């Protein structure tokens, strides 16, 4: 049962979870707000608040006996992330994106992420609700990349990348792929699995040598140089809001890399592997089979490999599936 100490709110005034209400003022993250609440540092209308409390703008909230300042105006930035910058708000991590952008007027955080060795467009904001709607995989918002490989691009590679590749215990959604250079492709995704493009290429025995994001939805990187940022324009924001008007939302902020959000495809073991992979597998010595169990039909389940949490294994240098992702259902 959800607790609430809100006593001054009007009946129709919307309620917000206390941790979100605090984080939206810019003083800390939701996780940090949770710690403050657990430590008894937060009061609502003069009463120490507990976890799960919901409040409205009419409530008086204080942190460490200091009144909470008003929620700042929403901020939306377009940033050209250079290679080497880490997409985290953790101040303990060197070259984190918040320090790199150095925006002083409000606490901001990235919408999704780009790997440290990748570059290009990333959005930053202090608006948690828009983050949820843009990032959720089911909302299918486009993200466009220019990617170079370590060898020439073939028609077969383009076709297979576009059709979907088995990674992280799922099959990637069909995407748009076009060869634009000897070893370079343009690829448009509508999902954001962890290191998705690099894993897809690795599975097909290609290695990414450079990856640059040039578009998110209707926002283009344009002429921004690495390290530069600009504000999202009013017309761009209006179109974003129109595009996400029917998007699903969650109260807790979503992350860009969510393998579970994409696990609606066929099982990996049902997908035919490349011929060179089958050949390597056939060449490997097989361990002696175990004696059959007296349980009969249940022996296979007991003798099979143990399973772990899906989506957390790393691809090997050959691009093979992680051990903890083999023979598992999505």
From TrEMBL:
The EC number on file is 5.4.99.-
Task: Give GO BP annotations, semicolon-separated.
Answer: enzyme-directed rRNA pseudouridine synthesis
Q: Where is the composition biased (Low complexity)?
A: 311-320
List the molecular function annotations (GO) for this entry: 23S rRNA pseudouridine(2604) synthase activity; RNA binding
Extent of Basic residues compositional bias: 277-293
Q: For the RNA-binding S4 domain, which residue ranges apply?
A: 16-78
Q: Where is this region: Disordered?
A: 250-330
Matching entries from SMART domains are given as: S4
**Which keywords does this chain's UniProt record carry?**
Isomerase, RNA-binding
For whether the record's keyword set contains ATP-binding, the answer is no
Query: Mind telling me which InterPro entries this protein's record contains?
Result: PsdUridine_s_RsuA/RluB/E/F_cat, PsdUridine_synth_cat_dom_sf, PsdUridine_synth_RsuA/RluA, PsdUridine_synth_RsuA/RluB/E/F, PsdUridine_synth_RsuA/RluB_CS, RsuA_PseudoU_synthase, S4_RNA-bd, S4_RNA-bd_sf
What is the reaction catalyzed? uridine(2604) in 23S rRNA = pseudouridine(2604) in 23S rRNA; uridine(35) in tRNA(Tyr) = pseudouridine(35) in tRNA(Tyr)
User: What single Pfam family name could you report for this chain, choosing any that match?
Assistant: PseudoU_synth_2
PANTHER family from the xrefs?
PSEUDOURIDINE SYNTHASE FAMILY PROTEIN-RELATED (PTHR47683), RNA-BINDING S4 DOMAIN-CONTAINING PROTEIN (PTHR47683:SF2)
- Family affiliation: Belongs to the pseudouridine synthase RsuA family.
NCBIfam families xrefs: PRK10475.1 (NF007784), pseudouridine synthase (TIGR00093)
The name of this protein is Pseudouridine synthase
Specify the taxonomic lineage: Bacteria, Pseudomonadati, Pseudomonadota, Gammaproteobacteria, Aeromonadales
